[in-house]
Amino acid sequence: MADKSYPTGGEFLLSETAPGDAFTPEDFDENQRMFSTTVDGFVDSVIAPVRDELEYKGNTDLGKGLLKQAADMGLLMVDIPEAYGGMGSNKATVMLVSERMANAGSFAVTHGAQSGIGTLPIVYFGTEEQKTKYLPGIATGEIMTCYALTETGSGSDALAAATTAKLSEDGSHYVMNGSKQFITNAGYSDICILFAKIDGEQFTCFIVDLHADGVTIGAEEHKMGIKGSSTCSITLEDVKVPADDLLGQIGKGHHIAFNILNVGRFKLGASVLGGIKMTLASAVPYTKEREQFGQPLSNFGLIRKKIADVQTSGFLTESMVYRTAGLLDKAIETLDKSAEGYDLAGIQMVEEFSIECSMIKVYASEALAFAVDEGVQMLGGYGYCSEYPVERYYRDERINRLFEGTNEINRMIIPGMIMKKAMKGELAFLKAAQTVAEELTALPSFEEPGEPEFMEDEMKLVANMKKVVLAGLGLAAQKFGMGLKDQQEVLADVADICMHAYACESGILRALKKADKDGQDSAALMADMLTLGVHDAMDKVGVLARNVLANTVDGDELRTYAAGLRRLTKHDPVSRAKLHDRIADKVIAADGWTVG
Ligand SMILES: Cc1cc2nc3c(=O)[nH]c(=O)nc-3n(C[C@H](O)[C@H](O)[C@H](O)COP(=O)(O)OP(=O)(O)OC[C@H]3O[C@@H](n4cnc5c(N)ncnc54)[C@H](O)[C@@H]3O)c2cc1C
To answer: How does 454-490 read in b/e, with b if 16+ C-beta sit within 10 Å?
Structure first.
């Protein structure tokens, strides 16, 4: 914790971050921007010509060829270490590739499964032999890979898997039986990162050859969206898996499963951010062209509000996504790259930030859900028709709240991990919670505020949001003890407050950094988005916090805490209409996404 040279996961709740220490999209270097251009080029030249075939005819067979073309442009090797034919890029670059790849629609999911969950278990947990055997081929697209955790009977409860593996008498191979469900890219993958229980007990990870005898790939699922991505079941009947293809340690499959999900979650955040930008790029020009009542839709206050709100929640999403990428990179940079076990240590760093990974997953996927819903609304009836891409964005968005751990499961992880870190002494949460509880029950002070500096008011509100997390979770922990894990509504409300605090703080740090570098005028749009975003968030935090209290204490105790809470969540009204107007002006002028 304190002796570490980098901030750890969840620490944002207890400490302040200097704006200069927060990574922002404005910090991308030439090399990273080049990646972005490469992905854009791939989407324009390779995906655009087959878009209809993929998205509307649901031709999932195209996936394999498209992956090969992505590999030829270097887009499958970003996350693979240089020693095994990859680029070993940092997390910020990986996130940027995921963000830009969102423009590839269904193929973004195909690409994510191959280059992320299908590859990273080998990168992080593979032996030297396994890495040498598989990674170069995965990087060049000669080996297609997928990841099979889910089964018909075990989705969120992944460790309840029924697939079994039994070691042969001579110890040369395992005999595997069972069935996996909803496996992305299973239709054409060569290998699969697959989880099974040895002797029905020890949850373990394997690399399974999908061309082996006894493997049957089911028919493609008929899905609501991402229709061009392959999703099939995999059935295993007495499949022989060489003992050398056991990945990681026997009985430690959950380490692989959960750590890879953490990576999937922050990459998903970047991908859905791309979706928010795509939605604005489709909807905003439409609102300028379409006229009703003798004027463009973009003149109407309620349409301008939608544009401003989508842009603002996208800005907060982007700020938290890349701030987290910077945190991960900073932590990973402290490792010795030449040391044995460097890759494994890298994934342990990611695990330290599992709170942030889950926050990004939930916040970003719900920001996209909001964006596509408003996107359809901006287009009216045309938004409901497949002639316009927002109809597809609306359907494609839905999966993001389901996979990589449903949003319910991720909401439980956020406070769960905070408490776990607190109990292990990795986060000085309990002491801080006690201090805030004392502040809440003390008499109020009546300090006269002076003239606020740039973003000072917003920063104070965010500091108070963090106090609400500390007070709410601290109180709930005290009241429910070990039973806290069963108080799902309380935990979910705390998770939401936590996300608002992190998202808003990330945006503020970004605006302050921008203002420090280029002057306050350059951050004027960011400042407007933050005033709007922080006030909106604080309104929600007020309601969430009241629920946490009322679900935790009652009687006089409830009244005392509620009074303290009112002080913490108090904020002066702002004219949202004026803010919406100013933000919408800039977004409309830019024909979509802009931060200034
Ligand atoms: C298109 C697609 C692609 C996929 N790709 C892959 C893949 O490549 N590999 C893979 O392994 N899996 C994949 N999945 C599976 C996906 O990860 C699971 O669908 C997801 O984990 C949820 O599991 P489930 O569908 O069994 O839902 P369930 O676990 O049955 O959940 C149903 C509902 O109950 C809620 N719920 C469950 N448990 C709790 C709890 N403890 N507390 C509160 N609420 C709870 C859930 O949040 C959800 O709302 C994919 C799924 C789809 C649809």
So the answer is: ebebbbebbebbbbbbbbbbbbbbeebeeebeebeeb
